[in-house]
Amino acid sequence: MRKPIIAGNWKMNMTASHAVFFLQFLEEELRYIGEDVEVVVCPPFTDLRSAATVIEADNFNIGLGAQDMYWEEKGAFTGEISPLMLNDLRVSYVIIGHSERRNFFGETNVTVNKKVKAAIAHHLKPIICVGESLDEHNRGETLDIAQTQLVEGLKGVAIKKADDLVVAYEPIWAIGTGRNATPAEANDAARHIRTVLGSIFSSDLAGKIRIQYGGSVNPDNISAIMKESDIDGALVGGASLDVADFTRIIKYNK
Ligand code: 13P
Predict the structure, then answer these.
(1) pLDDT tens digits, residue range 157-211?
(2) Which CATH class is domain 5-250?
(3) What is the 74 CA–ligand 1 centroid distance (Å)?
(4) Which of 32, 179, 217, 241 is the most exposed place for a label (fewest CB within 10 A)?
(5) Is the model's pTM score more than 0.90?
(6) Which residues pair with 41 in a beta bridge?
(7) Does the CB atom of residue 142 touch ligand 1 within 6 A?
């Protein structure tokens, strides 16, 4: 009942012309897969205009997401991108609170919360990232960290329907390391995340919210991850930069 969602987080990779080329190839590969998986790409801000243009002009069945945004609509915030600017580019998703933003750029649960609220107010669907560091993992704090990040990140957030947000469980020790969480570990975290979402919203809504796993997802490990009961998709970094690999991930059940 939860439609799987596979999203590519390109991080700081690919120029605008590269993005257009990539999307044309990807669409060609996906032409016959039908509607059973939702596909989203999250390019850098500078690629969004070109990506939106090619997606719209050729009617591609690929959703567009941004990798971050600021919570104010406009003003003296040098270097920032507002939700109105993303609306103007027909972006539908926005990644919020990625661990790289938290670790390298000072993102906190408080700023995540402001961004999530602003995204929802502007009809952008946040993909909220949570996940523990290696030290936290080794101390057995996995579930506590995800819970705190969600409770604080979603404080005062109201959603009308489950489709309004996606949660990505991304253990930091698995990102870009080639060491993914086992499907069972990822599912334990996802199940706990769903319980926490149930206490924040309602268990009915939580049962419908999609939870992704992210961290060294590749064409060889995706099927086992997707078989888990509480995992509804993947947020893919490195392997989303290669059309062939990303296509194999999207076609995980073919
Ligand atoms: P990798 O797939 O490269 O490990 O990155 C995961 C990630 O951070 C997606 O947001």
Answers:
(1) 999 899 999 999 999 999 999 998 999 999 999 999 999 999 999 999 999 999 9
(2) alpha beta
(3) 30
(4) 32
(5) yes
(6) 8, 64
(7) no
